[in-house]
Amino acid sequence: MSEKGNGLSLVWYLGILLTVFLWGMSFLWSDSVLDQGVPVFTFIFTRMIIAASALSLFSLLTGKFQRIRKGDLKWFAAMTAFEPFLYFLGETFGLKITGSPTLCSVIIATIPVFSLIVGWIAFKEKLSPLNRTGIFVAVAGVILFVLVGGSLHTNYLYGIAILFLAVIGSTGYTAICKKLANKGYNAFAIVTWQFILAIGYFLIPFLVFEARTWTPAYLAWPVLKPIIMLAVLCSGVAFVIYAACVDRIGMTRTTVFLPLVAIVSAVASLILGQDTLHTMQLVGIVVAMVGVVMAQYNKQTAKNNET
Question: What is the domain partition of the chain in residue ranges?
Answer without folding.
Answer: 26-126+151-255
